[in-house]
Amino acid sequence: MKVSQKKLATRKDWIRRNQLLSNPDVMMEDPYGNPAESWQLALARQLNDLRDFHVWKPMVVRGENGNFGVWDQFRERELLPCAYDDIGELPEMRSFDDNFSAPIPVKQGTRWGVVSSDGLNNVLLPFDYDAITTIEVGFLLLQAHLWGLYRPSNGILFPCVANEIWLDETLAIIIYRKNHKLGVVYPYTDAVFDSIRQGETDREICFSKDGVDGYLTKKGNFIPKKDYSKYPKRIFIDTWTYPYY
Fold first, then answer.
1. How many domains, the chain?
2. Could you list the residue range(s) of the whole structural domain that residue 14 is in?
3. Is 198 domain-assigned?
4. Could you tell me the pTM of the whole model?
5. How many Å apart are CA 124 and CA 115, to the nearest integer?
6. Alpha-carbon span 204 to 235, nearest angstrom
């Protein structure tokens, strides 16, 4: 597969920067040829440029058979063959990770699954789902109008039983809704809460149940706010522990 000259030039530029980084004695200019005040400043500028610039997403390609695959245009390699009816959201790739591989949601026929992009294309999640949506912490799975959560390193974190699942970035927890009630995916709680919101301070996560505000312990148990002083190990935003962090 051919790669545009622009992409090839970008790759050559990256190789040249690595050569400069490996020979600091002669590196007295920044990545754009401007004089640098010191070698340390030049190194810092180039490291910042590498980190910010060389992050990209691979491209979806279509084969002669009409099916779709995935091509890494930076390293000029095939990640997925043109064997799928549709491709989901693609992961970010980074120039310093030569062995990069990531799970990719794909569609065969009318069903979605997840496969590896390491060249083996192993099926990580069977093609049993109506839709798969990529989020920061994994994949949301839709099956028979109900949502679940999957992460390759942990498997199915949450079965497809929820009406809705989302990552609350302010609270740093994954919330699900079932039958008009709210619960937490991990540590798991039943959907018994009327609301889950930030508490009186920036650190607090407040849960409301049957008109009573309270907190969760680290084991997932609900305690009313009036009794919180008895439980020093209650959950705070900045001490929440995920199974995948």
1. 2
2. 5-53
3. yes
4. 0.69
5. 5
6. 8
